[in-house]
Specification:
Four copies of one chain form a homotetramer. Chain A has 269 residues and is of the alpha+beta class. The first copy, chain A, has nine helices and 13 strands. In chain A, the strands form two sheets. Chain A has a seven-stranded antiparallel β-sheet. In chain A, strands 5-6-7-8-12-13 form a six-stranded antiparallel β-sheet. In chain A, strand 12 and strand 13 form a beta hairpin. The C terminus of chain A is likely disordered. Chains A and D meet through strand 3 and helix 3 of A and strand 3 and helix 3 of D.
């Protein structure tokens, strides 16, 4: 389990959210409270949209809490749309290529959660990657595969639908492999214009996710970054929150319809 | 505050103590219980005596808990006398040169604790280093300075006395700089034959320190590494435990007599 | 292109070969002479057989030339059979999981060279991995895939044959993908008893490989580690050198018979 | 010996100079041509002025040539005044705190060269640091000491004079310690408004330094970063080049008058 935050709004310096609040993401790297792992010290990452369509990325395998580069960069860089992530490995190596966010072209993605039975479905899902995305596979996390499965064409046409397809594919792989453990995740996805934040679980225990409308913009977080808990609203389970370019927030049901697909396949057989 | 362990006895593989017990040092790197900082993720180190008079050193600035090198090395290396340390920085950078143990010639040292008002006395203590030891100053921790102040000649003649002198010098510097905070420490020191483990505080709250006589040898730890708490004995405050080459354990008072020295100086004035 | 050395014989300290000679492997990390890349600064690794059937591994993504851990470990560790490797990346990330040697059970492997058209055949070869080995894929190098393709059962029965099969499979994948570039490699493989060193190219330009019979044992190197050039013998192209447990050296032709296989397939069609 | 570049002018993206030219600084990290060490792989650093008076800093102990963070940051960050540096250690550890640039308040500094007999004068020069600057000593390089010796008040009043004083102090320490080796350096110093680039040697062999007036601004480099060698002008030995806020370039003699000072001291005695 990891911790993350995403922001969309007027440009602000990244440290406004990443390090200055009392329970900032950097604080959560040592003392997270709403997840099993209090320590999220297996690397960190920043991604931000700035001068180009493609986001900037800064990732390192060190803990976030004492990193001078992270302090300086979040103090210097301002952005209207950025991601920050602290990682708690669930088994894969502590290395930059396993750190979030992931980016390809103008799309950026980060993830927290658990893909049940990952070892039993990894090769099936990797086999589904397009040739182009296969070349971008550098690490060994489930998160990177989920991102690379998001086909570029699908993302451009319908990012929420693309995410639903990838999770449906993942759930199918789990079912066919006889995996009993759930798929639980939160994730953030952006093209530099829209911010999509997903909270989903195949059982009734999705990881926590909150959002807040502030003066400058919208912040979405794994857990509140300050003590003003009444200002933070939990995103409902199986919901996707979208911040549109003008700042409008939409909350949509996000169901992954695996049963219907199975039915269709049976009907066809 | 950091966590450490030291062993002297029949040669054993380092993972016997460093990673295998349920509350091993690696476990303590994420979940220490008897100190303020539960997380000791700002680097780690091993030091061991093997084929040569000089100990081997392996130190890294990464957390200990997911480090494959640490796993493999502690599994492969056996030694009759070794140190292991996980670090929680109190402000100095997370970098290898600030990681413990420190070694010079055949002497090896590691440390946990707090030198009150360090910023106000650092330059005075560094000015006391011999020319030879001054060249070995690579980092910026108080721990490295304490070690480098231990003069090689004094160490060879009387290691406990050398340690007492260094702490007296440190206390004098604190007093003269008007420092109110205490000096609290545990430390381990070895020449490859004897193991000395110090527990000292200028007030009544020294950091915790325990020891156990096992079948193979003596283990000294910041906190017990397993659930057999009745087998671990607390080292009394202001005491030095010495394991002699044959395995005999001595416990001696370890007082740092700063008043008498001040008196002498006054008398001379 | 990388540089490596392998040793089999009486136990010696690793620095005897890794750092002490005038053109030692550490020296080659900055100033290799017989390959395109003079600098091999994208990480390094050690693997050695010691107390257990499984080798110890120490790998880091830093350059070898200034690494204090490497200096201390090669000075302290002695072994009758060990590998050392300095890496020059040909595009994949500089990260520990891409560093050599690779190990699985008691087998250890390292590699230098070029698999032509790797991007076009990677997914085909990864698809050939057994389920067990697929889980061990952590990085993104061609080298790790070559190692993981070496099936454990085949290795135990006939390691040279297993290597021949993997290279034949690789060559077939290259041919079917229309790759014109050659497959050129040197590689070392060991089970802790035998040392196999391969020099192979699909064209007439295999990477350099030399060996020397010394007083203590056999050393195999990418390029001579000292100025006594007349003591080093080039391994002939398409040859495998084997050092048997007692120290006997065998040199066998190592041809990868891809044509015959293609012919057989045509005949069957 | 290291390699560096500094820029002052209209804001440009850092990769314009740091990575895009054919012999860019990143290229020089592997293949420098005008210095003894072709490889400058012992870490790197960026410093740039942006939204605040204090510069941003990004430093890492890895080689520059394959660092994805460096690629992304230089592509995203634009600045009217920035420094970049690749390091070749002359003995001190490869660690972030020994990487350039160094910054304190709004001042930033980087350095290349050789302080003869450093080990014999280090403690004398460190003893000259103000208390405030002493606390900022984190590493063990001569470069960091030169920077910390630049007193903040002196810098604000007369930066060139402050640099002259520090080098005079250094030369005096060398002479009094009986050091025969020369003091040779290039260095860059800025307050975010002015850029000062020094080329100095106590003998007749100062390290190389070049500058170019381009359409956007002034670039100063250890060695030309492209093949248009006729566009680059060597800075004369014992000269300081200053770029003023409006872009005007001044070239002033930069002599370090140690003899006269010694004479004056004698006269006063």
């Amino acid at each position: 389990m990891c911790r993350w935050l995403a922001y969309s709004g007027r440009p602000i310096f990244l440290d406004t959210l990443v390090s200055k609040p009392c329970h900032s993401l950097i604080h959560q790297s040592q003392s997270a409270t709403e997840c099993l792992a209090a320590t999220n010290g297996d690397g960190f990452g920043l991604g931000w949209y700035g001068a180009w369509d493609e986001p900037g990325l800064f990732r390192d395998a060190m803990p976030a809490w004492n990193d001078d580069n992270l302090k300086s960069l979040t103090h210097q860089i301002s952005s209207p749309l950025f991601f920050a992530h602290v990682r708690a490995s669930t088994g894969t190596p502590t290395t930059r290529v396993n750190c979030h966010p992931f980016a390809s072209g103008r799309w950026m993605f980060m993830h927290n959660g658990q893909v049940g039975g990952w070892d039993r479905i990894r090769r099936r899902l990797e086999a589904r990657l397009s040739d182009a995305r296969y070349h971008e596979r550098h690490g060994s996390t489930d998160s990177e595969v989920l991102f690379l499965l998001l086909d570029a064409d699908d993302l451009d046409a319908d990012p929420i639908g693309a995410m639903r397809s990838v999770l449906a594919e993942t759930r199918r792989a789990m079912i066919e492999a006889g995996v009993d453990e759930p798929l639980r995740l939160t994730a953030a996805l952006s093209d530099g214009q829209h911010l999509h934040a997903f909270r989903y679980s195949s059982d009734d225990r999705p990881p926590s996710l909150y959002w807040r409308q502030g003066d400058d913009g919208i912040t979405v977080v794994s857990e509140p970054i300050d003590a003003a808990h009444d200002q933070w609203t939990a995103v409902a389970p199986n919901t996707v929150l979208t911040v549109e370019p003008g700042g409008r927030v939409r909350l949509d049901d996000f169901e992954v319809e695996i049963e219907r697909w199975v039915g269709a396949r049976v009907a066809l057989a």
